[in-house]
Amino acid sequence: QVQLAESGGGSVQPGGSLRLSCAASGNIFATVAMGWYRQPPGKERELVAQITAGHSTNYADSVKGRFTVSRDNAKNTVYLQMNNLRPEDTAVYYCNVRGYPAYNSRTFDDYWGQGTQVTVSS
Q: Span 88-95, mean pLDDT?
């Protein structure tokens, strides 16, 4: 059983900052990537930022230069530092962990946090 506990969401003014945290617990044989998705009101869920086991990163074009994804392996935690927030960043943010559940697994599993609300408004 894998559980992801998210924290750090809230309401800020444009230009403000927030830091999201996601702590993973349970057993994953090998983690491929950890990251964040978001779902703005009335829109599809989209990838925001991702960090792989090899520490390469992927970002949505809309957040490049403003958001930074990082991880702490000792704490099994992934973070999303969000700076210079904009109203269009308003969304529910979901932590995602992708990994192999067992040593002989041939496909990935995706695990999801419960979602945390980020609201950016003046």
A: 98
Sign of the alpha-carbon torsion through 19, 24, 30, 36? negative
Give the closest residue to 39 by CA, choosing from 69, 16, 14, 60: 60
4, 22 contact by CB (below 8 A): yes
* DSSP 3-state of 107: coil
Let me know if 4 is exposed, middle or buried by CB neighbors in 10 A (0-12, 13-18, 19+).
buried
Per DSSP bridges, beta strands 77-82 and 18-26 are: antiparallel
What one-character-per-residue DSSP string does 16-39 give?
--EEEEEEEEE--SEEEEEEEEEE
pLDDT of residue 63: 98
At 17-60, the pLDDT tens digits run 999 999 999 888 889 999 999 999 999 999 999 999 899 999 99
